[in-house]
């Protein structure tokens, strides 16, 4: 009995009321989900419609649901940190717990919120925008999602089992090594992020091939929508950047689990190897989560200004320039580490250069707005708010690009303010913009505009209340990673204001969540498939789109293809309807979710170094691969009668 008690005390995180609250919440939520599914007899529906689906639209919805849940978790972490720092000498969190909270906050927001949210939106929109019926590799797309999902679940399990990682989201060696960081927390980071990262790399490959090989007839590269262009370029960055991070995670895992010394100076390793590999991925990662939202803003601004996007070709080449420059800027994270002057000068200049193509995009959006018939919808408000707020973050980024100045700013709250100004005003504003814009295409009804605008104004104003004072706080000397501070430094009033802003952002998010629930019951139905008078092909289908997306693959002759089709129809020049033909579609399969579950088991075993669990889990993964190789009948045909019935029901006969 004593052995069992000792094991339970080591295995489960104990001693903190918040942990017990989390335990209770997880248990109650799990029981509630099981009870609802059982009571309404939805287990079969869940398996057949969602867990085994390879439909890119459903996979996109699952990505977004998971990202919203992770956003709630990451937001609670942020509020806990702000509560701790509101007043001097507080001990709401002790030093160790605070380290765990800011580590999980950063990791969750970047890897488990920003990326899956963008993957969700690109799953929803890209195949529709290029006139395709699915992605190039539907099975791989489903596997990518489930790897992300189980990787995220493994990482989040650390909160209640074993203990959370506490080495920061960048997990620098040697602090993240086994000697200085014993326990399983860092193992959760390495294994959970690795599993999720495999899915992210596969997604990049999948969408790169999809866009290059599956565009509608006539859609050349320079006739693609800007969002599709942004995803193409992002996919290239993913393919080149993620292997570096994958290698770094693998090397540190081998260090911790098997006693190697890739990052130990005394044994011939180098801690800077981790820093270089991490940031060689980490800085392009910033643009992995920014370039897609640049594409979202381009679509939304053109749609609601009712104009063709100004400077289309320049917008494309500016994104290409950003993607190239993103790979030669990573060393600006080391300006305080004693590099030589020529090295600092090169990376300082390369960092500043990124401001040029980014500035070009800002001016092109402004010129698109010029003399447009601007419609102030909720998506448009998010897009308009992005321009000034992100510009502030960009300007401060140029300040940080100057190596001598960065030596002063780097470890201060000035830097914290900068990257939140870019990642919230850029990525978060962008994903909220895209969520409202494509919501009717996902679900067939619109989110309520009044509630959406309330959420926007409260969130946007609160964002500025929270993060603009942070610049001044940094210049006053408050450093990053500080879990408490003494009175009398003059920091307290600013910290109080910042906490008020953080709470306001939470209120804005809650209103948005309420809007989603309210609109599901009372929302205005989208009966046309084109509620925004859109310009691109996703609006040429019903809302939500049928399994096959298009009864006939559209033929494209110009940019803004759907706008051109509507104009031809208004002039009476539309092509006559063609007869329907059976449509070839991939069949659902349970292998991706089962294989990812085995990966979770193997990962959990590695976290605790329980190889009796890890090895069977790995065998299960291999068995799923073998089973997949023997699946020959992995598709079906939708008969003409079903197509006619579906098209007649939507009122959008193609």
UniProtKB/TrEMBL annotation:
This is Quinol oxidase subunit 1. Its cofactor is ferriheme a; Cu cation. NCBIfam families: QoxB (TIGR02882). It comes from Sporolactobacillus terrae. Keywords: Cell membrane, Copper, Electron transport, Heme, Hydrogen ion transport, Ion transport, Iron, Membrane, Metal-binding, Oxidoreductase, Respiratory chain, Transmembrane, Transmembrane helix, Transport. Coiled coil: none annotated. The chain crosses the membrane at residues 20-40, 61-81, 101-126, 138-161, 188-214, 226-252, 258-279, 286-304, 310-331, 343-367, 379-401, 413-439, 454-473, 494-517, 590-612. The keyword Acetylation does not apply.
